[in-house]
Amino acid sequence: MAEHEETKGESLMEMITEKIHGGDSSSDSEDEKPSELKAKIYRLFGREKPVHHVFGGGKPADVLLWRNKKISAGALGVATAIWVLFELMEYHLLTLVCHGLILTLAIVFLWSNGTTFINKSPPRIPKVSMPEQPVLQFVSVLRLEINHALFVLREIAMGRDLKKFLAVIASLWVLSIVGSWCNFLTLFYIVFVFLHTVPVLYEKHEDKVDPLAEKLMIEIKKQYAVFDEKLLSKIPRGPLKDKKH
């Protein structure tokens, strides 16, 4: 009798432990659901990394996303000053360089010769030289980016992706129209200000922007599907040659 009660008590304890573990497993599944939902959230341009990683990380991304406000404000201020000098005041680059060198040489010359009248040693002018390694790194990165752009343009021109071809043509056409409105310096300044304002604003409000962008992309895909059905699908195309591996 006592053994029967002990076995009944053990079975009761096993049922309780199973319920507890079952509750834990259900809670674990409930915990997994939000993570799965987070993974399915639409992000602009299909990105999976934070905005800081999209811009390459490091100091350039810190400047664009205003991690260091003094450096970001300084860069934007310098760009604004250059644009005001060359665009609004119609200053020329060669004139600015010559005037800057004249002013610098005059100050250093007067400072060096003025110390002889006050019995002080002349100031030590440090040697200024351009470091080789950063210049080579910049040229190497620029070469890689240009080669990548040329490769992408070649792939688009081969006609393998009609959608990408039309997107590039439309982008170049819009850029040509914008270029007719302003010169290169103004366009460069607009892009510079755009890069220093839009990414940081998007990073702060990405939870509101991404749903709107998702709706916009769905609508664009619908319109493209209609355009493809009515026009693009009726354009005769030659057979594409297989790629040689």
Name a few traits of the molecule.
about 240 residues; mainly alpha; about 75% helix; about 0% strand; disordered C terminus
Write the layout of secondary structure elements.
Elements: H1 2-39, H2 51-54, H3 58-64, H4 69-88, H5 93-114, H6 132-157, H7 162-181, H8 184-204, H9 206-230
Helix pairs in contact: 4-8
Polypeptide structure, described:
With 245 residues, this protein is mainly α. The protein has a domain at 132-181. It has nine helices and no strands. It has helices at 2-39, 51-54, 58-64, 69-88, 93-114, 132-157, 162-181, 184-204, 206-230. It starts with a helix and ends in a 15-residue tail after the last helix. The chain crosses the membrane at residues 70-86, 93-114, 165-195. It is a multi-pass membrane protein. This is Reticulon-like protein. Residues 60-245 form the Reticulon domain.
* Termini separation: 80 Å
Radius of gyration: 32 Å
Overall 3D form = elongated
Give average pLDDT, whole number.
76
Domain Reticulon: 60-245
Organism: Trapa natans (Water chestnut)
Subcellular location: Endoplasmic reticulum membrane
Keywords: Endoplasmic reticulum, Membrane, Transmembrane, Transmembrane helix
Give a quick summary of the entry.
By secondary structure, this protein is an all-alpha fold. Helix content is 75%, strand content 0%.
